[in-house]
Amino acid sequence: MTNSPTILVFDSGLGGLTVLREVVAARPDAHYVYVADDAFFPYGHHSEDEIIARVVPLMGELIGTHDPDIVVIACNTASTLVLSHLRAAYSLPFVGTVPAIKPACAQSKSRRVSVLGTKGTVKREYTKALIRDFAQGCEVTLVGSPELASLAEAELSGRSISDEAILAELAPCFVGKASDATSRTDTVVLACTHYPLLLDRMKKLAPWTVDWIDPAPAIARRVSDLLGPRIGGTAQDRAAMIFTSNRVHGLSATLTPFFGGRAVA
Ligand code: DGL
């Protein structure tokens, strides 16, 4: 690739920004288009058929408009369902975000791992297959959170979110006796890209210390490998931030750090 590549990062809302910031750090030479399908948020509340019928044609329109070199589906709820449909329909490379069950189970010492995702993600056959193939003897607890993605959106938009609201979603991840460090949960997979937005608060609220697995750096490495060697320098253009609802977000100052400091149009 000789020109600056264009990377389109897609999520149902603002969660994909946690993947975007890693991709931007790995590929400052690229142009960025971030699409938040907020008109259909939250994906975790929609049926599988509804998500496929929404995302596959929408992606066709986005590819037609922005002509990306690569698309990152920065959403577990969508990736665990639509990646195969997107790859069959469009010829460019897609990188998805799926629950990091394999590395979590490989590193767990207590052999107790929890997967915190949307209700949709934890129900998926894709997620169950990852557990069958990669649990490596660990007990894996699936925790489907109804509200955490919306709470993360709200906090990023400057609203105040109570500790109680976060803890209610988080508590089922902690399995075993707090007093028995050898058998209680020691690893939690962040299987929704919104959740790293609340990570500092979740760490403070957790009943005991665990390792939180965020796959974003691994996704960024995969994107960079697919694009090939960097051309050097930093693309100077403004990044594009698109909301499918066309809402006026007024979030530019909040968003800029996720785009590596570049201006967001
Ligand atoms: N960010 C999305 C994910 O990774 C989900 C949020 C939603 O329910 O829309 O699963």
Automatic annotation (TrEMBL):
<comment type="function">
    <text>Provides the (R)-glutamate required for cell wall biosynthesis.</text>
</comment>
<keyword id="KW-0133">Cell shape</keyword>
<protein>
    <recommendedName>
        <fullName>Glutamate racemase</fullName>
        <ecNumber>5.1.1.3</ecNumber>
    </recommendedName>
</protein>
<dbReference type="GO" id="GO:0008881">
    <property type="term" value="F:glutamate racemase activity"/>
</dbReference>
<dbReference type="InterPro" id="IPR018187">
    <property type="entry name" value="Asp/Glu_racemase_AS_1"/>
</dbReference>
<dbReference type="InterPro" id="IPR015942">
    <property type="entry name" value="Asp/Glu/hydantoin_racemase"/>
</dbReference>
<feature type="binding site">
    <location>
        <begin position="193"/>
        <end position="194"/>
    </location>
    <ligand>
        <name>substrate</name>
    </ligand>
</feature>
<feature type="active site" description="Proton donor/acceptor">
    <location>
        <position position="75"/>
    </location>
</feature>
<feature type="active site" description="Proton donor/acceptor">
    <location>
        <position position="192"/>
    </location>
</feature>
<dbReference type="InterPro" id="IPR001920">
    <property type="entry name" value="Asp/Glu_race"/>
</dbReference>
<dbReference type="GO" id="GO:0009252">
    <property type="term" value="P:peptidoglycan biosynthetic process"/>
</dbReference>
<dbReference type="InterPro" id="IPR033134">
    <property type="entry name" value="Asp/Glu_racemase_AS_2"/>
</dbReference>
<feature type="binding site">
    <location>
        <begin position="11"/>
        <end position="12"/>
    </location>
    <ligand>
        <name>substrate</name>
    </ligand>
</feature>
<dbReference type="Pfam" id="PF01177">
    <property type="entry name" value="Asp_Glu_race"/>
</dbReference>
<keyword id="KW-0573">Peptidoglycan synthesis</keyword>
<feature type="binding site">
    <location>
        <begin position="76"/>
        <end position="77"/>
    </location>
    <ligand>
        <name>substrate</name>
    </ligand>
</feature>
<comment type="pathway">
    <text>Cell wall biogenesis; peptidoglycan biosynthesis.</text>
</comment>
<dbReference type="GO" id="GO:0071555">
    <property type="term" value="P:cell wall organization"/>
</dbReference>
<comment type="similarity">
    <text>Belongs to the aspartate/glutamate racemases family.</text>
</comment>
<dbReference type="InterPro" id="IPR004391">
    <property type="entry name" value="Glu_race"/>
</dbReference>
<keyword id="KW-0961">Cell wall biogenesis/degradation</keyword>
<dbReference type="GO" id="GO:0008360">
    <property type="term" value="P:regulation of cell shape"/>
</dbReference>
<feature type="binding site">
    <location>
        <begin position="43"/>
        <end position="44"/>
    </location>
    <ligand>
        <name>substrate</name>
    </ligand>
</feature>
<keyword id="KW-0413">Isomerase</keyword>
